[in-house]
Amino acid sequence: MQVVVTGGAGFIGANLCRALTALPGVDRVVALDDLSTGFRRNLDGLDRVELVEGTILDPSLLDEVFDGVDAVVHLAARPSVPRSLADPMASHTTNATGTMEVLEAARRNGGPHVVVASSSSVYGANPALPKREDMATLPASPYAASKLAAEAATLAYGRSFGLPVLAFRFFNVFGPLQGAGHAYAAVVPAFIAAALDGAPLPVHGDGTQTRDFTYVGTVTAVLADAVARRVTDPGPVNLAFGTRVSLLDLIGLLEGILGEPLTRAHTDPRAGDVRDSQADRSRVSALFPDLVPVALPEGLEATVEWFRADR
Asked: Read out DSSP for the chain?
């Protein structure tokens, strides 16, 4: 089996490449990445992974890379709600138009299995919890709108052209290889990096907002299994397991792992951020009944260990 991972040098992509190389029957993994947010070093030691540097907006490159492949896991994106507020068109071009280019290339090249990353941000301003895939989507940022467009296009290609597709809504993925040294860092790496530097943890708002944190090892186990079994679904699938944790509780867990109290620096809430997030896990559990997700404390310990080793 030959698999292409777009965004394969990024945080989730590089972890997935590792998981795929350990999968029986996978002969070749290609990581396609423009290195705008990914890094070559994320693929160090993965001799069976070929890195192709380039953009998903290049149809001829996509045709070259997709030729003869069995599956495509499309993770390439321009991440971050704040980044999308600063440049909405750039987020749309990469996330929405880029996904269309991937789908068209898949259609031109024999219709490989296509797994696409959407986002829990598509639920947006809908206050209902837990978030079920059949509830209304109310994107609150250009990023969320672009991911909803990508998801909708993926499912439409499944219905219109018979392309075997699966669209996952990711929820606050964290773990090793996730960057912290930039203005758009996600909350877990931002907290861990600040704690290890002895700096106050940056908390946007009062810290009572909640998230459904999902360890990257759990995410990649699901993605690899989806590729191995060619799992498809006509609707979106939450890739999270219903763990609702406030940022203050997250800080408490980190204090237990690090063995010391952590100071906090509260700032105003960020525009476009969702107040609360929690997944309904029914659909993902039905599709992947044998999966046991990594518990949040265990995932945080592994992530802190990686950050310490990477300093």
From this structure: -EEEEETTTSHHHHHHHHHHHTSTT--EEEEEE-SSS--GGGGTT-TTEEEEE--TT-HHHHHHHHTT-SEEEE------HHHHHH-HHHHHIIIIIHHHHHHHHHHHTT--EEEEEEEGGGGBT---SSBPTTSPPB--SHHHHHHHHHHHHHHHHHHHH---EEEEEE-SEE-TT---SSTT--HHHHHHHHHHHTPPEEEESSS--EE--EEHHHHHHHHHHHHHHT---SS-EEES----EEHHHHHHHHHHHHTS---EEEEPPPTT--SB--B--HHHHHHSTT--PPPHHHHHHHHHHHHHHH-
Cα–Cα–Cα angle for 259, 265, 268, nearest 5°? 140
Q: 38-50, pLDDT tens digit by residue?
A: 999 999 999 999 9
pTM (2 d.p.)? 0.96
* 10: in domain: yes
The range of the structural domain enclosing residue 146 comes to 2-170+215-241
Q: Is residue 283 part of a domain?
A: no
Least confident span in 1-10, 46-55, 126-135, 183-192: 183-192
106 φ/ψ sector (left φ>0, alpha ψ -120 to 50, else beta) = alpha
Confidence of residue 184 (pLDDT cuts 50, 70, 90): low
- Whether the per-residue pLDDT at 220 is higher than 90: the answer is yes
In a domain, 208, yes or no: no
Q: How many domains does the chain have?
A: 1
Please check whether residue 74 lies inside any domain of the structure. yes
pLDDT of residue 285 exceeding 90: yes
- Section 171-177 average pLDDT: 97
CATH number of the structural domain spanning residue 158: 3.40.50.720
Scan for tokens 């292409």, then name that residue. Answer: 4
